[in-house]
Inverse folding.
């Protein structure tokens, strides 16, 4: 089962990398100027897709390793919280620091899915856009450490 989860994690990491490569020019432009409504909508979609990709990873881990997917009304937040806790089946996926960073993107995901794009304000979105590359680098590094731990666990069980 770990092989399938590892494969799913690696696939989603690749997809998120492609997402940021595809919108690199737009992200760079946001560093220099205030976006118009179309640009703001596009960048909001990128942030939504970013967190959605991460949530796909977390769901794969919850289903394939933890065999426990949260079902409460706030299951998205519970799923993210589940990723900072180690268990007898796995190490923690995320550090508390990364969890705190990603909570902001989870909150935005909820807003994006339940609002109209013309309600978005650059002053609020900017707080997520400017640090997103660093947040992704940190998250990706932690995900790779987690994948490495799964590979190590699998190897040690075969010895």
């Amino acid at each position: 089962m770990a092989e399938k989860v590892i494969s799913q994690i690696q696939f989603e990491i690749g997809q998120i990398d492609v997402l940021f490569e595809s919108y690199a020019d737009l992200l760079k432009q946001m560093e220099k100027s205030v976006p118009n409504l179309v640009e703001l909508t596009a960048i909001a979609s990128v942030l939504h897709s970013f967190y959605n990709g991460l949530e796909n990873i977390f769901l794969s881990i919850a289903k394939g390793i933890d065999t426990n997917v949260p079902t409460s009304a706030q299951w998205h937040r519970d799923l993210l919280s589940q990723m900072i806790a180690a268990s007898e089946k796995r190490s923690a996926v995320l550090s508390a620091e990364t969890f705190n960073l990603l909570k902001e993107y989870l909150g935005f995901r909820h807003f994006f899915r339940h609002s109209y794009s013309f309600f978005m304000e650059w002053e609020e979105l900017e707080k997520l856009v400017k640090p997103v590359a660093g947040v992704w680098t940190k998250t990706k590094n932690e995900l790779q450490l987690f994948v490495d731990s799964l590979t190590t666990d699998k190897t040690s069980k075969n010895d």
In short: The chain has one domain: 2-158. The chain has a mean pLDDT of 93. The helical segments are 2-22, 24-30, 37-66, 75-82, 96-113, 122-129, 132-158.
